[in-house]
Amino acid sequence: MKKPGAFTLLGILAAFATAVSAAPIDREALVHRHHPVIRGVDVDAPVSIGNGGFAFNADITGLQTLADEYHRNGVPAETLCRWAWYSEANPEEFTLPDASKPFTRADGKVINYPTQQSTAAGDWLRRNPRSHPLARISFERTAADAKPISPADITDPEQSLDLWNGVIESRFTLDGETVRVTTTCHPEQDLVAVRIESGLLESGALAVRFAFPCGHDAATKLTPALDWSHPESHETTESARSPQRVDLRRKRDSLVYQSSVAWEGAGNWESTAPHTFRLSTRARGLAFVAAFSPGSLGRLPDFAETRRAAVDHWNAFWKSGAAVDFSGSSDPRAAEIEKRIVLSRYLMAAQCAGAVPPQESGLTCNTWYGKHHTEMIWWHTAHFPLWGNDDLLEKNLAWYRERLPQARALAESRGLRGARWAKMVGPDARESPGGNPLIIWNQPHCIYLSELLYRNDSSKEILGRYKDLVLETADCLASMAFFDKERGRYVLGPPLWIAQEIYDQATSQNPGFELAYWRWALETANQWRERLGMPREETWDHVVRHLSPLPVKDGKYVALESHPDTWDNIDSRHDHPTMLAPLGILPGGPMVDRETMNRTLDAVLAEWDWETKIWGWDYPMIAMTATRLGRPETAVEILLREGPNNLYLPTGHCPQRSDVALPKDAPPGARKREIAAYLPANGAFLSAVALMVAGWDGCETEHPGFPKNGRWKIRAEGLHPLP
Q1: What span, in angstroms and rounded, lies between the C-alpha atoms of 425 and 29?
Q2: Which of 137, 366, 489, 610 could serve as a FRET partner for 151 with CA atoms 20 to 30 Å apart?
Q3: Helices (H) and strands (E) in the chain, counts
Q4: Which DSSP letter does residue 282 get?
Q5: How many CB atoms lie within 10 A of CB 462?
Q6: Could you tell me the pTM of the whole model?
């Protein structure tokens, strides 16, 4: 028999343990333990501050002093936004028909598609419009014979990115003097604020340089350098001046924008070369803000105001939405997952919610001329509502809602109903020539993303706001499926370029992922009609009931029905293994046989060509399939598997394809990353973790993506399950 006090003591201990487990996550501590701290000139670790549509990327000096070194050998440090777009002259008046050629559709109709990217018209239409960089802000020595500051000149550096507050603190020694720099960004204005303290300022030996490039090197598609040539091709003129502020008007052909620099205390502003200016002081400290806008700039907040706004913004971001705490786990992989979550959430919020949806490199550098790839919008933004940041997804979908007229016009030009979304687009949503017009897996994303918003907020407002986006996208989906009377079923393609971009576009038909996505999206769109009080669309239901099955060969899913050689030909095991996506990104359903999918996952793990070309979002995608199949150890292993495109750098970036050829004049030790930052990897990682922790509709296993071996201690708040 227990002593009278024993039960009471056990009860107290049990209650205490329950209270501890139920205690809210200390979010500030969670975020703080993953602040990047850089102690050296690490070209892989520029730190970023941004507001979703504007970002300033700083090197170890807190500015962009060593930006050329970072670009040549690591990750660029640039100033970018999503509203500055430039188009070069088009004297030939090229239009998409000039880059088109005919393809025969499955229904026998011949349609012209703009796939001729190597023609003069195709080249111009791909390059234009392109994202235009803003100013480079850096330190410079002021002596007439002074050498540019080099990495070797920076000693004893220490830099931290305070993720909780959105502030960079940098300290280093230059020419025997300590330099301290605080850098932050305004959450609502495209404005960077800087405070500097150093005896080098007071002595007049150091100043801040503002330089405006011509643009990016248009000859380089991926991670181009800034172009400082042809100063005569653009204009930088002073439009207003006061003792503590200068306003500049920037112009390159049709692109016109404003930039203003305002400083506190005594400062001297001077032009030192075309498009180049210097701000200096004879005080020990200097604080300034640099703002950019497509329109006029009124009153500017000072450094202190900007810092307060940044702190309030980032504190609110981290306190709202979801959090996952892995502290207490004994599996050494837990800390890495937690770190990638925190860094990825910061990067995606800072770089992927602008006036135009993001490019694949976010606001770190340019890729594909800055254009948005609509097939990536799922990887860029699906995690936002899963982690409770619906507003950031809505900023992206606002652009899609505004571009519905262009999507309708594109559908009509192809003989389709509803709204057809182009793949590679600038702010005007115009297609870019190449394989892009034949990609179709971008098409259902708007339905999936709208559904995620509705799952979090099933209000009439959400239904009304996204009604047209969902229903018109679905109508186009249905009209893109053609009924094959001989086989009695609907088919997709030809022509099409499947998600695994390696097959002949003119003959490809019935890719597995796309078929599964069509079925899920059309069924979901009909559910929207019912929620809106509308009858189901019978045409959509007919497509769902008679859609071609997922292609299978030798007991495993293959990429597509028309070329079922996935497991027979190593050359067909490059790029994305999207035959796994029907049970992973998508919830499976009656189209998917779980045992077949299990065998397919085993085959991908054993036989895929992991080294040639697999992308940063493929690892999380595979982990999602493993999770839904009840294979958590596989999910964790794949999520963190070492691979050429699954390397996460100190500040959270995941570069792609680091083995590209260097130019002959490259300095010793240089390397070139074709895509220096790849944000779909970060977004995919966050979506995969959401599935692995929160599960999906009908999932009864707690944290289904993590092994139940006692080595994982997981506390989660605010995560939403997937469909």
Answers
A1: 40
A2: 366
A3: 19, 30
A4: S
A5: 18
A6: 0.95
Domain limits, the chain: 31-88+128-318
What six digits make up the tokens of 599? Answer: 């065998």
Query: How far, in Å, CA of 520 to CA of 524, rounded?
Result: 6
| Cα–Cα dist 205/582, whole Å | 62
Contacts of 356 (CB under 8 A, 6+ apart): 82, 83, 372, 399, 426, 427
pLDDT digits (tens, 9 = 90+) for 260-281: 999 999 999 999 999 999 999 9
Phi, psi of 177 (to 5 degrees): -120, 145
Q: What is the DSSP letter of 198?
A: E
Q: Which two tokens stand for residue 410?
A: 């594109």
Distance CA 232, CA 229 (A): 9
CB 307 within 8 A of CB 264: no
Beta-bridge partner residues of 258: 249, 293
Residue 227, classified by CB atoms within 10 Å of its CB into exposed (0-12), middle (13-18) or buried (19+), is middle
pLDDT digits (tens, 9 = 90+) for 668-697: 555 567 899 999 999 999 999 999 999 999
Predicted confidence (pLDDT) per residue in 591-643, tens digit: 999 999 999 999 999 999 998 889 999 999 999 999 999 999 999 999 999 99
Q: Where are the beta strands (DSSP E) in 428-515?
A: 481-484, 489-492
Poorest-confidence range of 18-22, 327-331, 353-357? 18-22
Distance CA 194, CA 107 (A): 61
Inter-axis angle of helices 460-480 and 538-545, nearest 10? 60
Helix ranges (DSSP H) in 532-581:
538-545
Which 3 state secondary structure label does DSSP give 223? coil
Rounded-to-integer distance, Cα 362 and Cα 370, Å: 9
For the segment 539-577, what is each residue's pLDDT rounded down to a tens digit? 999 999 999 999 999 999 999 999 999 999 999 998 999
What would the two tokens of residue 453 be? 């918003």
Structure tokens at 697: 């509709």
Is residue 582 scored above 60 in pLDDT? yes
Neighbours of 329 (CB within 10 A): 18
- Residue 569's CB is within 10 A of a number of other CB atoms, namely 9
The encoded tokens of residue 179 equal 């330099």
Count the neighbouring beta carbons within 10 Å of the beta carbon of residue 641.
14
Give the pairing type, strands 47-50 and 54-58.
antiparallel
Q: Please, is 330 exposed, middle or buried when counting C-beta atoms within 10 Å of its C-beta (0-12, 13-18, 19+)?
A: exposed
We find that the CATH architecture of domain 31-88+128-318 is Distorted Sandwich (2.70)
pLDDT of residue 5: 42
Burial class (CB in 10 A: 0-12, 13-18, 19+), 16: exposed
Whether the predicted pLDDT of 667 surpasses 80: no
Q: State phi, psi for 267 to the nearest 5 degrees.
A: -150, 155
CB 646 within 8 A of CB 681: yes
Per DSSP bridges, beta strands 276-280 and 552-553 are unpaired
172 in Cβ contact with 61 (< 8 Å): yes
Contact 651, 47 (CB under 8 A): yes
Cβ atoms of 47 and 170 closer than 8 Å: no
